[in-house]
Input
Amino acid sequence: MYGLICYMGAQALVKIQRMDLGLTQVELAAQAQIALPTLQQLEAGASNPSLDTLEKLGQVLGFAVVLQPKSCDWSRLIELGLPLMDSVNRSKRSSLLSKEELIYELRRALTEVEVCDDDRKREAVCALILALSTHYPTFYRRHFGKNRHANVFAQIRSGRVIKLRRLALAKISEYL
Output
């Protein structure tokens, strides 16, 4: 089964899978119970299909429509102050560090670490949230105060998280 979260667009996925199954556009439209012009426009990349249309096509073609949050840019979040060793990319990015980017990436990271099994990432996110909540409480309340994930992580205070918090503070104090 194929997922729409992939490197090809929906139009390419639908067209390739339709052709692999030996279906014409007319046959696929009939089986999926969608209008032929809708399918033609989708395959031509001239329309934005609804989720309902994609689900109907997926039923016939054997793929699922899945909505999931975008993955966090961990390398950038490390540059912004996440106390985690980056084994993938150690190059320095020339762009300036910004509050807005920290907020955006940290929100994505909070969602991601809730469902992942990586304790290192979870502890690093806890440390960064703890640093923000204790040393920048106004900033924390304004941007993360209503985020249930952030409020849970701000309460975790193991020895390792407190040590990591110091590393996070050293970095975020440069631009907050």
The two ends are 46 Å apart (CA to CA). The chain has ten helices and two strands.
